[in-house]
# Entry
Amino acid sequence: MNNEAITPFRIDIAQSDLDDLRNRLAGARWPDELPGVGWEYGIPLDYVRELAEYWRTGYDWRRHEAELNELPQFTTEIDGQNVHFVHIRSAEPDAMPLILTHGWPGSMVEFLDVIGPLTDPAAHGGDPASAFHVVIPALPGFGFSGPTTEKGWNTARIAAAWAELMRRLGYERYGVQGGDMGAFVSAELGKIDAEHVAGVHLNAATFGFIPFGKVSDEERATLTESEQARLVRLAHFNGDDNGYFKIQATKPQTIAYSLVDSPIGQLAWIMEKFKEWTFPSHDLPEQAIDRDRLLTNVMLYWLTGTAGSAARLYYENMHVQGWKAERSPTPVGVAVFAQDIAIRRFGEYGNNIVHWSEFDRGGHFAAMEAPGLFTTDVRQFFGELK
# Structure
């Protein structure tokens, strides 16, 4: 068998798996909760109960499965790992190839609202000249890429796999976009495949765009008001908001038992981050993103049993022998949405930043929360590179 084979893929979840999910939700064993604490101790009991009941009785997976299956999907094996991806070619002959990479706790679901505007801008009020051929892979260890089967699948290794994927698809020159862990992968891809990468567009950028260690009072005084606010958010993340990171980066196997066995545990683990990282963070996540869309994202973890292997990505990144510190030669564009923490002066050290946008709305999941802003910024950045 040709190990470079690209095989068509269709989602077809067994009814027994859906019945099992409903039975688990119906028979959930609930924790207690202190009165009046709200979100202070974590995601509240009454909210999870209500959301879980809707998941059990109101959410229709088959409808969303059919929606996902309208997209052309494929699998291929790269470096011994199965990779699932969506590949939509634009009808525009001069469209630029663009690979979009999700983060955690996201999936290809993050990009559903931007696929149409990116591949067929004319149908969405845009310039046909700004069209893209879109490739959306699932990170190894996530979703239908399935679990990783060996150590070492960090974001640098994923970037190398993405370079190979684009080569197999016949793309000589292509754009790169990613957020969260996808930003790690995308920035690295711009370094290792600079000969073919036209530019790298990032959102929810962290590593390489934030300070290491304490910022002096003198330097802090030179920051803008919005940049100082980002330092406050960074401090919060490194404190009360960082528990998930510490667990997944140190003991991913331990948390995997709860996440893979309990849909309530999986739901709470993911939805708490969507609440904290959407804009504004004091509102419920479904006020920023459609509730069904949120649950479809959760389903891609639950139905594939990949919550544990997805968590391993944090371990692999934190146990790599060394981070590459060389400055990227590839043009980089950064979109900073209202919940992001990237600060340009820190990003300049390792990146060839040629485009920087700041927005007063949108959050960590920009393509879901503010698809219009996201699409416009992507078009603008790559339009400047053509």
